[in-house]
Design goal:
Region (Disordered): 45-87, 424-443
Radius of gyration: 22 Å
EC number: 2.7.11.1
Shape: globular
CATH topology of the largest domain: Transferase(Phosphotransferase), domain 1
Structural class: alpha+beta
Number of domains: 2
CATH architecture of the largest domain: Orthogonal Bundle
Largest sheet: 7 strands, antiparallel
Number of strands: 15
Strand order of the largest sheet: 2-15-6-7-5-4-3
Order of helices and strands: EHEHEEEHHEEHHEEEEEEEHHHHHHE
Domain Protein kinase: 92-381
CATH superfamily of the largest domain: Transferase(Phosphotransferase) domain 1
Oligomer: single chain
GO molecular function: ATP binding; protein serine/threonine kinase activity
Keywords: ATP-binding, Kinase, Nucleotide-binding, Phosphoprotein, Serine/threonine-protein kinase, Transferase
CATH class of the largest domain: Mainly Alpha
Amino acid sequence: MSPSSTSPLPPAPSFQRNLVVPSTKMTLDRTNNSCTNDMLLAMPKPQFKSTHSTPLLPIRPYSQPERSHSHTTRSVSAEPTRKQEQLSASSFSKIRLLGKGDVGKVYLVKQKDNGNLYALKVLSKKEMIRRNKIKRAYAEQTILASVNHPFIVPLYHSFQSKNYLYLAMEFCAGGEFFRALQRRPGRVLMENDARFYAAEMVAALEYLHLCGIVFRDLKPENILLHESGHLMLSDFDLSIQSPSAGAPSIVRTNLPFSRPMLDTKSCANLRTNSFVGTEEYLAPEVIRGDGHSSTVDWWALGIFIYEMLYGFTPFKGTSRDETFDLIITQSLDFPDYSNNVYYSGPSSTARSLIRKLLHKDETKRIGSKAGASEVKSHAFFKPINFALLRNMKPPIIPAKSKNAIDAVNFKHVKESFSFDLQKSLAAPPSPPATDDDEDPFADFGSAILHHDIVESP
């Protein structure tokens, strides 16, 4: 029976997330190192730790909604055609405001010549300079322009004007996954549903780690619900990329009849002392300032699964300092359903995975040795065929209105000031900066990512 029939769950703490201001120690690799499927297949030959191996299959990203029987490949245009050169902010018309942050806003826009919908992130240069967030904009553009995965939101275009930076990404009609969770009875999912969504995030993190990228801010607010019901990871401004990703290796487990596993831990070969993330999802090593690696993503996955199953995060305090103290010192507890005759709570297998993900010693945390393969091999994911995950029917299909551009799954957001987006969009692109200009955004190049149609067999 669903949790909606149970006695009330423990009261959930406030769902206002507090974003920790990133340290200025964060470094950024601005080289445009693509991490497409072709590059993954062209990586140096793995160092095999056994005589058995399995081929790496290319990842098949989402098709566009109107092309339900095809998939796409993406490439960055280094030499745009004349038509592509004309594509600028003025090529779009505003429909509505989807969300806003401290340095910018996200609008639902329509491309005038073909009617395609995009989520256009508009970032204020003035605010980014004032808040010292220039590197974050570069990080997001660089990473989004290089990745290609069905569970990561695609970037289609990026450009700039005199006062703003623009990132045109896929519009996910389901909105934030956080809002979808809030609408569920008890703010929880049944275990099978939570397993499905956790598996999609494991697949996304595995791919990012293969590319040498540590996400560092996994939470429901940074996950979008595609109109198909699948999840897409978004908001890469706190992510960091290793200057040179290592080559993956293939290892075998000691279990009989087990398939070889791909070791992704060595790919994201970096360690940083940056203090970034969202407080309820921060790993202990980040708070202590010990430096952190890709294992922080597995800690955040544990918090994410816990929140899907119980409706709140496990270490939330009444203040930021108390939350940090609980993360470091408090043992992991689970709500007691022993007296509930209608619902026994999540399984012991689910609790086992959460405990392993939320191990306070990062060297003993699941995923710290061989990366995603360790996590995927846990018994909790035994019902999941990761190779067919994209073809499975998702538990939640976003509501659709008669007007497809109504964005019914987004909360109504009011403009904080009068902002004529169309006037801003009509502004010409910024001219190339000279040495005297000292333009901090000079390297924020325009990118056009092609989605070539390849018919499925």
